[in-house]
């Protein structure tokens, strides 16, 4: 289902078709290795299977490797979630990116410490 967004700029109306939906935010801040959250923090291995409850999350099978890019800052008693990409088991080369519970994985290798606290944005929780 496509949404139509109208952007009213002085003297200009832009129409954009957006395929997807903005979901509720899981947190207002995240920890990253850099200000843009593009560098890999760590490599983790799933300790059990996980079935994604909605499009913000990723399905994970026990033993799969996950590259971790950000760690949501826990707030208001919510669970702690990390964002990463899963590779293998028929996934394409780019992998599938999404959130998963941090207690699901064991970090195998830390590449960079997640020391940069960055605000989350709506696009962090956008589902196509």
UniProtKB/TrEMBL annotation:
Belongs to the MIA/OTOR family. It is found in: Secreted. Residues 39-110 form the SH3 domain. It comes from Nomascus leucogenys. GO terms for biological process: cartilage condensation. Keywords: Disulfide bond, Secreted, SH3 domain, Signal. The gene is OTOR. GO terms for cellular component: extracellular region. This is Otoraplin. Its main location: secreted. Pfam families: SH3_2 (PF07653).
